[in-house]
Amino acid sequence: MEMPEKLALIVDEFASAPRDVVLEMLLEYSDAVRPLPAELEGHAGMEQVPECQTPFFLKADVTAKGTVELYFDCPPEAPTTRAFAGILAEGLEGATVDEVLAVPADIYQRMGLANAISPLRVRGGTAILQRLKNQVTAQR
Q: What is the chain's percent helix, strand, coil content, to nearest 5?
């Protein structure tokens, strides 16, 4: 199984973009994080990702249809970290459990982000993906 087509297109778009454009694209994705629903306010039922330098919370729910709903929260003052959430939210919207679990661990390297942002930020993004997959696996 390969990663969802929407996410693969995002990966390809980043991989082919010049470094200065990559930074602009990250800022656009940081704006794509939707507000939390009322029941998750205050991060109730969400998992914190301590590997991130900024407070980052996530929740993955597997629906009865076998698709995954994702919720992220990260302060607007952390646009790079919010961008990871925006990329995953947009690229995995409507994805099945198997599609989410098929996302490669090195997705951010494939996107070329290691050339545009610090290794510490890339590690944080990788931790976000792994914790998301752990939550999906636990509900399988």
A: 55, 10, 35
When pLDDT is cut at 50, 70 and 90, the band that residue 2 belongs to is confident
The CATH class, in words, for 5-139 is: alpha beta
Mean pLDDT calculated for residue range 33-62: 94
Q: Position 110: which residue type?
A: R
Contacts of 49 (CB under 8 A, 6+ apart): 56, 57, 58, 124, 127, 128, 131
Has residue 91 got a pLDDT over 90?
Answer: yes
| Angle at the Cα of 10 from the Cα atoms of 125 and 128, rounded to 5 degrees | 15
Q: Flag whether the pTM goes above 0.85.
A: yes
Distance of alpha carbon 113 from alpha carbon 118, whole angstroms: 8
The string of DSSP codes covering 22-47 is HHHHHHHHHTTPPPPPGGGGGGTTPE
